[in-house]
């Protein structure tokens, strides 16, 4: 049997995940990266995207995130996320409305529009809907 990582994902609101996995995939600042058994110790920032835990059976558990920091040490990974949501905790209707609002703002343009904020809102809503299984 493969050796497993102890993985803990926490946000300011709650402990989101505590368990074991073969692989942890994280949206790093320069692209996705993976943590496997016997990974070198490190501390790294990560960005908005999807965190994936692959369990010992090969099943994947996804979490939407807005970024944060993680530490890897002695086969333990602690993910300190600004936000982290599992599929079952995502309010799909709210995410769909947020995506629609952001898309409408970007299309309308206009004076006073914070384009970066609207793009970020659109990206975050899409990620949440992807984790919820609504978008591919």
Write the CATH homologous superfamily of the largest domain: F0F1 ATP synthase delta/epsilon subunit, N-terminal
Percent of residues in beta strands?
35-45%
Question: Number of DSSP strands?
Answer: 10
Class per helix and strand makeup: alpha+beta
Can you list the strand order of the major beta sheet? 2-1-9-8-5
Mean pLDDT reading: 93
User: What is the number of helices?
Assistant: 2
What does this structure look like?
With 136 residues, this protein is α+β, with helices and mostly antiparallel strands. It has 2 domains: 5-87, Sandwich (ATP Synthase, domain 1); 91-131, Single alpha-helices involved in coiled-coils or other helix-helix interfaces. The protein contains 2 helices and 10 strands. Strands 2-1-9-8-5 form a 5-stranded mixed β-sheet, with no helix packed on it. A hairpin with a 4-residue loop joins β1 and β2 (15-21). α1 runs antiparallel to α2. The relative contact order is 0.18. The mean pLDDT is 93.
Please name the defining characteristics of this protein:
Single alpha-helices involved in coiled-coils or other helix-helix interfaces; alpha+beta; ATP Synthase, domain 1; five-stranded antiparallel beta sheet; 41% strand; 2 helices; 10 strands; 136 residues; 2 domains; five-stranded mixed beta sheet
In brief, what are we looking at here?
The chain is an alpha+beta fold and 136 residues long.
Topology, element by element:
Blueprint: E1 5-10, E2 15-21, E3 23-28, E4 31-35, E5 42-46, E6 49-54, E7 60-65, E8 68-73, E9 76-81, E10 84-86, H1 92-108, H2 115-131
Parallel strand pairs: 1-9
Antiparallel strand pairs: 1-2, 3-4, 3-6, 5-8, 6-7, 7-10, 8-9
Helix pairs in contact: 1-2
């Amino acid at each position: 049997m493969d050796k497993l990582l102890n993985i803990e994902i926490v946000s300011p609101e709650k402990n989101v995940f505590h368990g074991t996995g073969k692989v942890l995939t994280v949206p790093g600042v320069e692209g996705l990266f993976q943590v496997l058994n016997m990974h070198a110790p490190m501390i790294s920032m990560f960005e908005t995207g999807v965190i994936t835990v692959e369990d010992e059976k090969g099943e994947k558990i996804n979490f939407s995130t807005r970024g944060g920091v993680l530490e890897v040490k002695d086969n333990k990974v602690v993910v300190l996320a600004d936000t982290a949501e599992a599929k079952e905790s995502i309010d799909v209707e709210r995410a769909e409305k947020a995506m629609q609002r952001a898309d409408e703002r970007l299309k309308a343009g206009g004076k006073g529009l914070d384009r970066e904020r609207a793009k970020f809102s659109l990206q975050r809503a899409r990620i949440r809907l992807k984790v919820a299984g609504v978008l591919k």
